[in-house]
Amino acid sequence: MKQESETHRPPQKDDPKEKTDNSANFCRGFYRRTNMSLSHSELDHLTNIAIEAAQLGGSILTDYAKKGFEIHKKSQINLVTEADLASEKTIIGIINRTFPSHQILAEEEGLQTQDQSPYKWIIDPLDGTTNFAHGFPMYNVSIGVEYEGDVHVGVVLDPTRNELFVAQKGKGAWLNNTPIHVSATPKLGDALLVTGFAYDVHTVADNNLKEFCAFSLRARGMRRTGTAAIDLCYVACGRFDGFWELKLNPWDTAAGTLIVEEAGGKVTNYTGKPFSIYGQDIIASNGMIHHEMVRVLEDMRAD
Ligand code: IPD
Ligand code: CA
Ligand code: CA
C-alpha cells in the first residue's frame, strides 16, 4: 500500500520530469540512416533484451506495490512514484550495458541521444501510475525499440497478471508466446471500446468528455483502464474492439501500436491518416469498426 507521506510541491527545476521536453520534435530526435535492414538474429536479440528489461522493471513494481512507496505530484493529478523512477533506472541500466551506443527516450529521464544512433529505445517504466498509486492492480512496463524511425520491437508486461505481450515488425504478435489476433466484431454497435484522459482533463475544453459521451451512446460498452499500453494490447488480443485517445506520448504508444498492427489491427490518427507515435491523436481498432470510429470523432470534433 502507498505511504501516507504524499507531498504536493510545485514543479522543481531539478525534477526529472521538468528536465523532460515532451514536444514531438524533441522526442523524435535524429538518427543516421544505414539503409540496412535488421537481421532475424538482431531482431531476436533486441526482443530478448527488451523482455529481460521489462521483467526486471515489472518485478521492481510488484516489490514496491507490496512494501509501499513515496508519491510526488508532477502536476495537480499527474503523479510519479519511487517505483516509476526505480523501474526506469534499472531498465536504462540494462540497455546502456548491452547497447551503449543506442539512443533512449524514457518518460522520466527524457531523451539520451548517442551519436545519432539509428536505434532508439522508448520506455514507459510504469504505465498506469495513478492506478499503481491507489493500489488498483492494472499497470505495466512498456518498451518499444525503434530502428531508423520505425518501431521494430514492442514489449508490454503486465506483472500483476503475468501477461507478456510481444511483437516484432513483420513477424506477428504474441501473448505469453501464443499468437494473438484482433477481434472480428463487425460494427460499432457491438463493440467494447476503451479510452483514456490526459492529465489536463480538468483545465482544457478539448478533454475527450464529449467524445466519451458520443461513443457511450453508440457502442455496446465503454471501459477506462488507466493504462494506454494495456488498452492497446487488449485491442490486439480481441478483449477490446477499439481504442482512442488524445495527447498520449511516444512511451505510451510505441510498443502497443506495433502489437496492434502485428495482431492484424489498424492504427491511425483521428482522421484515418497514418499514425505517428510523436503525434497527438490515436485510434486503434480491429479494422472493421475503424471507419465508424473515425466518423464519430470527425463529427464530434467538427463543431
Ligand atoms: C497514462 C496512462 C493513461 C492515459 C494517460 C497516460 P502514465 O500514463 O496510460 O491510461 O490515459 O494519458 O499518461 O502517466 O500512467 O504513465
Ligand atoms: Ca504512460
Ligand atoms: Ca509512466
Write a brief structural summary:
With 303 residues, the chain is α+β, with helices and mostly antiparallel strands. The chain has helices at 24-28, 40-67, 82-98, 129-133, 209-216, 228-236, 250-262, 290-302, and strands spanning 71-73, 79-81, 103-106, 110-112, 119-127, 140-147, 150-158, 163-168, 172-175, 178-179, 192-195, 221-223, 242-246, 266-268, 281-285.
Rg, rounded, reads: 18 Å
Along the chain, the helix and strand elements come as: HHEEHEEEHEEEEEEHEHEHEEH
Strand arrangement across the biggest beta sheet: 4-3-5-6-7-8-9-10
CATH level-4 homologous superfamily of the largest domain: Fructose-1,6-Bisphosphatase, subunit A, domain 1
Helix amount: 25-40%
Describe this structure as you would to a colleague.
There is one protein chain. The N and C termini lie far apart (44 Å). Helix 2 packs antiparallel against helix 3 and helix 5 crosses helix 8. The chain folds into 2 domains: 163 residues, Fructose-1,6-Bisphosphatase, subunit A, domain 1 (Fructose-1,6-Bisphosphatase, Chain A, domain 1); 115 residues, 3-Layer(aba) Sandwich (D-Maltodextrin-Binding Protein, domain 2). With 303 residues, the chain is an alpha+beta fold. Strands 4-3-5-6-7-8-9-10 form an 8-stranded mixed beta sheet, with helices on both faces. A 5-stranded mixed beta sheet has the order 12-11-13-15-14, sandwiched between helices. It has 8 helices and 15 strands. A hairpin with a 3-residue loop joins strand 8 and strand 9. D-MYO-inositol-1-phosphate binds next to strand 5 and helix 4.
